[in-house]
Amino acid sequence: MKHLTGIQHLDSDQLNMLLDTAERIKECEEDYAGILQGQCVANLFFEPSTRTRFSFEVAEKRLGAYVLNFQEATSSRQKGESIYDTLKTLEAIGVKAAVIRHSQNGLLDDMHPRIGLALINAGTGNEEHPTQCLLDLLTIKQEFGCFRGLKVAIVGDVHHSRVARSNYYGLTKLGAEVYFAGPPCLNQAGASWVPRGCWYPFDELVEEMDVIMMLRIQHERHEQALTLSKADYHQHYGLTEERARRMKKGAIIMHPAPVNRDVELASTLVEAPQSRIFKQMENGVYVRMAVLYHLLGPAAKRQVQPVNKGAFPLGAFPGT
């Protein structure tokens, strides 16, 4: 059984394959209804979630899977059971895939060689959030048609953001140019995954970017509180109405949500014409259906005509 643990391990063909399948599902969802009938998928969320958890559940049910929602508070985790033993238990009773969100870095990398069911990373630590990246890529592709030459700014709490890391991997693999901006205390420019020279003052980027992707301030991951007030953060590092007026024609605003309104971006911009925030949420269902299809569905036995591309053989999804 193969897994989806991160974007870092995928190549551009695999990314395009998943995006093509998500587009196909969005256009012809009825062709995929019930395709996972009889298969069991478990959602294990050890951190709070709204969009990711519920869009995975909607995706699983639209594909016809049986859905188990793990509740840590009423599980044997309270008796000291390890996550590995929990997964082995699920595997033993016939669960075919586990969708996992957890605060621990490296959790899935340590376990996937020893687990028979498919592991899907729904956000781990500050390292990766692959399906968020895929839905962001799908949203950008719908807007611009391709990635090569696009300029994308990822702005805000880069240091703690698994979304930033996955999007950097995915966007650069597909040919986009990625820039970063945000408070110096949240600057991740020294990390191995951020190349030198990619960090800029936000005001130098606004007018040149095709996509401005704002990040949530992840207070739950900060060892110390930010010294900036919300108003100061918004003024210096947020997407204000004034900065939005300077955006280039046709540029779009993105955010993985939940949004701290009037902090990362002005409240008036959340549903502005150039915002694609709720489109991202909508695309999350189709992307997660595509991932489940490739991990558990009859992909190895079928061929799907990709949208606006030549046909890709949909074999078993390559492992990570």
From TrEMBL:
Pfam families (alphabetical): OTCace (PF00185), OTCace_N (PF02729)
Q: Which GO terms describe its cellular component?
A: cytosol
- Would the keyword Lipoprotein be found if you checked this record's keyword annotation? no
Annotated L-aspartate binding lies at K79, R162, R216
Q: Which PANTHER family match?
A: ASPARTATE CARBAMOYLTRANSFERASE (PTHR45753:SF6), ORNITHINE CARBAMOYLTRANSFERASE, MITOCHONDRIAL (PTHR45753)
Protein name, entry field: Aspartate carbamoyltransferase
Known NCBIfam families for this protein?
asp_carb_tr, PRK00856.1
Reactions mediated catalytically: carbamoyl phosphate + L-aspartate = N-carbamoyl-L-aspartate + phosphate + H(+)
Q: Which gene encodes it?
A: pyrB
Q: Which GO terms describe its molecular function?
A: amino acid binding; aspartate carbamoyltransferase activity
Which residues participate in carbamoyl phosphate binding?
Answer: R51, T52, R101, H129, Q132, A257, P258
Q: What does this protein do?
A: Catalyzes the condensation of carbamoyl phosphate and aspartate to form carbamoyl aspartate and inorganic phosphate, the committed step in the de novo pyrimidine nucleotide biosynthesis pathway.
Q: Assembly and partners?
A: Heterododecamer (2C3:3R2) of six catalytic PyrB chains organized as two trimers (C3), and six regulatory PyrI chains organized as three dimers (R2).
The UniProt entry's sequence similarity note says: Belongs to the aspartate/ornithine carbamoyltransferase superfamily. ATCase family.
Top-level division of the source organism's lineage: Bacteria
